[in-house]
UniProtKB/TrEMBL annotation:
It comes from Actinomadura macrotermitis. This is DUF3159 domain-containing protein. Pfam families: DUF3159 (PF11361). The keyword Transmembrane helix applies. The lineage of its organism: Bacteria, Bacillati, Actinomycetota, Actinomycetes, Streptosporangiales. The keyword Membrane applies. Keywords: Membrane, Transmembrane, Transmembrane helix.
Length: 229
């Protein structure tokens, strides 16, 4: 007699199906993201504004470029790899600084990334009717997920909704930035806009994580599919 046929089948716990996925702890994700946020968002603003107040526009532009290339050099010196996005950012900052120096306008320096933010908003929005939500691509770049999990209907609906949310967030970011850029001083623009955008982004991240945890709870709680023999 086939022993496998007489062995009792062990019950499968909820979430043991092919679509189960566990989200890393929030504290671990924050420890991973916080240094990059400080390096990429807070520090460049502080460096630019300090140099702007002490040395004027040209000094601030030089300081901003030096900060980016200094970060690249620091990574090389420590034997760490330099992400391609950081190299592209360095090129972008260099071009912006040259244009701002030629035109003698700080507005030109900050206008390009604001227009880029508006394009990101449009991209998130366009990904929804195409059925390829950009939020899913961003999330899987940060936390690899199994294909079976991503094909689940509830998961796909979640990423479509979150793509709409982030489209709205980036659109508000761009509109707010443009208004402040042309109506407020550079100092007010740098600090107030940075604070508002950071708060808006943090709220959107909170909603996204909360929604994803709810989605995981429902998906992982579904009974595993029993293969038909």
């Amino acid at each position: 007699m086939d022993r496998a046929a007489t062995t009792p089948t062990q019950p499968r716990p909820p979430g043991a199906g092919h679509h189960a996925f566990e989200l890393p702890r929030l504290t671990a994700m924050l420890r991973h993201a916080l240094p990059r946020f400080v390096e990429g968002v807070i520090a460049p603003v502080a460096v630019f504004y300090a140099a702007f107040a002490l040395l004027g526009l040209n000094g601030a532009l030089i300081a901003a470029v030096a900060w980016v290339y200094g970060g690249i050099g620091w990574r090389y010196a420590r034997g760490h790899g330099v992400p391609a996005m950081l190299l592209l950012a360095a090129v972008g900052v260099t071009v912006r600084a040259v244009l701002a120096a030629v035109t003698h306008s700080a507005v030109v320096y900050f206008l390009q990334p604001t227009l880029g933010t508006l394009m990101v908003a449009v991209t998130f929005l366009a990904s929804v009717p195409l059925g390829r939500p950009l939020a899913q691509k961003v999330a899987t770049d940060m936390v690899p997920m199994p294909e079976a999990f991503l094909r689940h209907d509830r998961v796909r609906r979640f990423f479509l909704r979150i793509s709409l949310l982030w489209s709205l967030v980036f659109f508000v970011n761009a509109v707010l930035s443009l208004w402040m850029l042309f109506n407020e001083s550079i100092g007010v623009y740098l600090w107030v806009r940075t604070g508002l955008v950071a708060a808006l982004g943090a709220a959107a991240v909170g909603v996204s994580v909360w929604g994803f945890r709810r989605c995981l709870h429902h998906v992982n709680g579904e009974p595993a599919a029993v293969p038909v023999r």
